[in-house]
Amino acid sequence: QVVNYAPFTLLPSAVPSALFEQAYAVQQDFNLLVDAISQNREFLEHTLASTIKVDDFTARLFRIYTQVLEEGLAQSVFLGINRSDYMFDCGADGTPALKQIEINTIAASFGGLTSRTPAVHRQVLKVLGKAEEASRLLPNNPSQGLALGIVKAWELYGSQSAVVMFLVEEVQRNIFDQRCIENELWNRNIRVIRKRFRDVFEKGSLDDARRLYIDGQEVAVVYYREGYVPQNYDPQNWEARLLLERSKAVKCPDIATQLAGTKKVQQELTRPGTLERLLPGRAASVARIRATFAGLYSLDLGEEGDKVAAKAIAAPDCFVLKPQREGGGNNLYGEELRHVLEKIKDSPERTSYILMDKIKPQPSKNYLLRPHSPLKISECISELGIFGVYIRQGKEMVMNKSAGHLLRTKAIEHADGGVAAGVAVLDTPYLV
Ligand code: ADP
Ligand code: MG
User: Fold this and answer.
1) Which of 9, 161, 179, 346 is the residue whose CA sits 20 to 30 A from 410?
2) pLDDT attached to residue 173
3) Is the CB of residue 102 below 6 angstroms from any atom belonging to ligand 1?
4) Average pLDDT, stretch 317-322?
């Protein structure tokens, strides 16, 4: 067993306060939107139809989704924990604009560790003789905010003896991030167990009311920190996933909400009229959401997709090519984007990708500290994430909140990749 410290910046990074506030102000709208999509079978079917023909992973998730719907849902309490990520796009006149990179609806991480980074950066600033600046760093406690969502879902499930199950990876690299949230639950006298898909396959069962049991313990809430990439699944793990989805337990997220977070859905949301259809009577929410959208384009077969592909091949540095994957390190940029698109431009494989305008933030200097790495100054860009938590009981929203933020910073030579991918590091916003 090896323990390393999580990588972090030496200094907090400047973040425009207007954009920071804008990101917080739109979070409850995004919670509503994700929840609305998760309940809209027709939208999910229509939107993912082309994707599931070519992307086996999305297709398998989709199969479980329809199977569970056809059986009839046993679950009646829904808990969403998401993180909406943004970069600050630098316009021609130098004014930065908030642009969404993506929204993560499953296993959105680093809420735990980042609850500790303000204290780190406050300390560094004090050591540098900058006590005034240190006092201006905002407190940030997603650990607590996310845990309070889990607590409320556990209460609504309504069984004192039931536990919360963290569904975790075989190799647990980010365990301390999860422990921060777990400890908040223990502090409120809620029992937490940590299990893998394999444990669920071997020891999980449903009773007649489809209550979920593992090792004889009833499970009220399943909090997925696993299950978002194909490598997390073998045939037994798929069976375990189906068992969990069929159960009455509150899944965070349920499979419909995971599908709502796919990149194909993100792209379709930018079509004129789509947000209005998904959020009827909520014009202000729609406007706030749309203001954060960058250009996103479908590569579905047909005239529209042909034009988009040709545009990207002609100017690859203006775009990002994204497959239906999570976790960082999967997107294509520049020459590689051009090369791949040229190869697949006439094949159905094209539809497993979407195309996005490349966001170009203004870089700034910082030191990125990671274990066993030399200390050197880097040109960096940052990505701001806002955590959202919501709970729906039947048709009624009973919680809808933002729950803190995450700032991640990386050197500009890396086009892609988050903290887990070994590229970005934890940071704290210094509002300017
Ligand atoms: P993943 O699901 O793998 O995290 P993302 O869409 O978040 O996929 O992309 C991964 C990383 O790639 C982001 O953290 C960001 O650094 C970079 N990236 C993604 N989209 C863009 C974009 N449109 N412009 C610039 N960089 C981007
Ligand atoms: Mg991401």
Assistant:
1) 179
2) 85
3) yes
4) 97
Contact (CB, 8 A) for 233 and 241? yes
pLDDT tens digits, one per residue of 123-147: 999 999 999 999 999 999 999 999 9
In the 3-class helix/strand/coil scheme, how is 82-151 assigned residue by residue? EEEEEEEEECCCCCEEEEEEEEECCCCCCCCHHHCHHHHHHHHHHHCCCHHHHHCCCCCCHHHHHHHHHH
Q: Which structure tokens are listed for 369?
A: 């500290």
pTM of the entire structure?
0.97
For residue 397, say whether it is annotated as part of any ligand binding site.
no
Strand partners, 224: 167
Query: Which one of the ligands is nearest to 87 CA?
Result: 1
Output the CA 416–ligand 2 centroid distance in Å.
9
Distance (Å, rounded) from C-alpha 222 to C-alpha 228?
A: 14
335 is catalytic: no
Q: Is 359 in the pocket of ligand 1 (CB under 6 A)?
A: yes
**340 C-beta closer than 6 A to ligand 1:** no
The domain defined by 8-294+359-431 carries CATH number 3.10.310.30:
no
Nearest ligand 1 atom, CA 329? 3
Q: Which residues pair with 194 in a beta bridge?
A: 166
Structure tokens at 81: 């924990």
Does residue 248 have an active-site annotation?
no
CB 48 within 8 A of CB 259: yes
User: Active site includes 109?
Assistant: yes
For 63, the token pair is: 């199969």
Query: Among the options 327, 334, 417, 422, which is catalytic?
Result: 327
In the chain, the percentage of residues whose pLDDT exceeds 90 is: 92
